[in-house]
Amino acid sequence: MEEIFSALARAMAFGTPILLAALGEVVVERAGVVNLGVEGMMAVGALAAFAAAQTSGNPFLGVVAGVLAGGIAASAHAFVSVNLRANQFVSGLALTMLGLGLSGLLGNKYVGAPLEHPLAETGFTWAAVVLSIVIWLVLYFTRTGLVVRSVGENPAAADALGLEVYLVRYGATIFGGMMAGLAGAFLSLAYRPSWSDGMTSGLGWIAVALTIFVAWESIRAVFGAFFFGLLYHLAFRLQGRLPSEMLLALPYLLVIVVLTLAALRRRQGNAPEGLGLPYERGTR
Amino acid sequence: MKRWLFIAAVLANLGFAQTEKLKACFIYVGPVGDYGWTNAHDEGRRLAEKALPWLETKFVESVPEAQAGPFIDKFVQEGCKVIFTTSFGFMDGTLEAAKKYPDVIFAHASGFKRAPNMATYMADFYQIYYLNGLVAGALTKSGKIGYVGAFPIPELKRHISAFALGIREVNPQASVNVKWINAWYDPAKASEATEALIAEGNDIFAFTEDSPSVIQTAAKKKLMSFSHYSPMHKFAPDYVVSGQLVHWDKIYIDFLTKVHNGTYTNKNLEKVDYWWLLGEKAVEMGGQAGMPINPKYIPALKAKMVKDRLTGKTVSVYDLVMSRWKAMAQAKPTFDPFTGPIKDRNGVVRVAPGKIMSIGELNSMEWAAPGIVGAWPNEPK
Q1: A19 touching chain B per CB within 8 A
Q2: Of the candidates B282, B276, B239, B241, which has an alpha carbon nearest to the alpha carbon of residue B132?
Q3: Are A188 and A3 in contact (CB under 8 A)?
Q4: Residue B187 is nearest to which of A108, A196, A233, comparing CB atoms?
Q5: Is residue B287 within 8 Å of residue B227, measured between CB atoms?
Q6: How far is CA A254 from CA A6, A206, B164, B237, in A?
Q7: Which chain A residues contact residue B189 at CB under 8 A?
Q8: Where are the domains positioned within chain A?
């Protein structure tokens, strides 16, 4: 029994950064924008959080800095994909590379320093769970949510109704970046408490896949993230009984299976109709 | 006017003669900020440059293992006279380059292929792991010691086995529980593997991974750990007991000095293989330089009495560690952890009584010492 509880506790701790980032991506994609830059925004957020917490001695200031840094990084993607109507996939990939590279470069002097006042993991976990419920409520029961969803489903119709398509997409993208930054802050302030280059180690990508895996539903993302966390933890707990390579590959295998199934269907389930398509006023 | 020109020409010439330095270039597999292997090599490079006024160095970081060739070509074009390649995976690329550029001197870390103009070098930790094992065996309360390993290769198997031999020498019932993460650098996996080991009741940790994640994760639960490769004491000053440190500069300075004074040339490196240990001061025990054991834990180690299997006398673990350390830290060590008789964990005799394992045997070691628990790929039956 105790074994099960400790495994669940670890699953939640490890699932937290995935959940936070995936919640952000759910909102972004609901507004019709794909942002593959999650990994990069997470890295930038982790560095900003760590740098601020270390210099000020206040970890909460670190959280704020991480969130802001993620938001700023995302606004670059918003500008390129909303205003310039560039290919969102390319822009997102570029953001990932830029974020990882920039954080590695700027973070050089922080490598190796331990954080004096780390935060508890559980605080972030509960915040993530609460946020997933709030996002679900906002998306389905408020006017704001309706606006976001309509912009994602049919930007032309939304525009015709007088909704600010660009503004909504900007807002959603920046919100997504802030969530990725928060996930990064969790990594550098609570999970590890320290900074090192490349510490996001692919979590951002799992979050992107999770968004599709849970069909753009924030509540399902909670279970999805903790499921991924559990697989990750079990890869170490069951070592010796099962080949660890297999368990470590499982989350990624699952991602491939899910994406294949989604692609086989003609219409991608719940996917917002306008997902990934740049909107230009006056064109169809 | 002419005279001035003459003086200027002489001065310029002097200046030129002074700047003609030996150019040594380094190819790294990871980023210099990795807090592990590459960082340690870069530290060695910087110390060598400081110590040798006639030395000029250059480096390139994060080179994929299969792509050493183009970077070597570039270094040769830029006039590098000595090229160090610092990862096992660069071995074949370095050998090819050595044949292509017979006038350049190459040195490859941790490999076993050499040529007239290509030497090999390694600073190994197995003696220190044995000493760390003595300490861990004395300090564990649960009798279970956790090890987070990068890849199941001979180098790690040698280190974990030496660690286990030390642990079992002072604590015959204790076990070393190993989890592999299949990565040299992955803080998330290292933390999670540590959490899994904690959940299984391990109370002291050692590891091979290029970040302090294991130390930090253990310290959060107030558990002890051993630092690895770089000085990591500062990450948890109360919980890092000891560890392993490397001083690549010792090898780099020795090698480059011998190149500079003509002892080593591009014709005579076929047999030059540095295998430097405690005796050569290429490695050091401790979580930071000059502190072999965290003072906080010395009283506990002095209080724990065991029988020295070599002398038959009852001594404290602290004295045992120090006497073993002294025996190994001389130019000609009088003690080696891998002295037979040693059986593996399945009861097969691996080192005959009185025999000491050779460098070749240590480099290809696949068996596990008694007390090791966990998956062990390629374990001989």
Answers
A1: no
A2: B241
A3: no
A4: A196
A5: yes
A6: 24, 10, 38, 41
A7: 201, 236, 248
A8: 2-110+117-264
Looking at per-residue confidence, does A56 or A282 come out higher? A56
Burial (CB count within 10 angstroms: exposed 0-12, middle 13-18, buried 19+), residue A113: middle
Contact call for residues B118 and B94 (beta carbons, < 8 A): yes
Fold annotation for B20-123+248-280: Rossmann fold (3.40.50)
**Rounded Cα distance, A149 and A273, in Å:** 10
Residue B238 burial by CB count (10 A; 0-12/13-18/19+): exposed, middle or buried?
A: exposed
- Strand arrangement, sheet containing B175-180: B283-285, B240-246, B224-229, B204-207, B144-149, B175-180, B372-373
- The architecture of the domain spanning B126-245+287-373 is 3-Layer(aba) Sandwich (3.40)
Mean pLDDT for B38-64 is: 93
> In which band, very low, low, confident or very high, does the pLDDT at A233 lie, cut at 50, 70 and 90?
confident
Secondary structure class of A262 (helix, strand, coil): helix
**pLDDT tier, B15 (very low <50, low <70, confident <90, very high otherwise):** very low
In 10 A of CB B313, how many CB atoms?
10
Do the Cβ atoms of A248 and B195 come within 8 Å?
no
Handedness of CA B27, B31, B33, B34 (dihedral sign): negative
What's the gap between Cα B14 and its chain centre? 42
Quick check: B187 and A192 CB within 8 A? yes
- Within a 10 A sphere around the Cβ of B32, how many other Cβ atoms? 21
B17-28 as b/e: b if 16+ CB within 10 A: eeeeebbbbbbb
Token pair listed for A123: 């605080």
Locate B80 and state its tokens: 């590098």
**Cβ separation B179–A199 shorter than 8 A:** no
As given in the structure block, the two tokens for residue B105 are 């001197």
A199 vs B contacts (CB less than 8 Å):
187-188, 211
Q: Who contacts B239 (Cβ-Cβ below 8 Å, separation ≥6)?
A: B215, B218, B219, B222, B223, B224, B225
What is the band of A256 on the pLDDT scale with cuts at 50, 70, 90? confident
Residue with tokens 């000059």: B290
**CATH architecture of residue range(s) A2-110+117-264:** Orthogonal Bundle (1.10)
Domain residue ranges of chain B, discontinuous segments joined by +: 20-123+248-280, 126-245+287-373
Minimal CA separation from A115 to chain B, in Å: 8
Predicted pLDDT at B210: 84
Burial class (CB in 10 A: 0-12, 13-18, 19+), A206: buried
Say if A237 is an interface residue toward chain B (CB within 8 Å).
yes
Tokens of B308: 């020295």
- Output Rg (C-alpha) for chain A, integer angstroms: 19
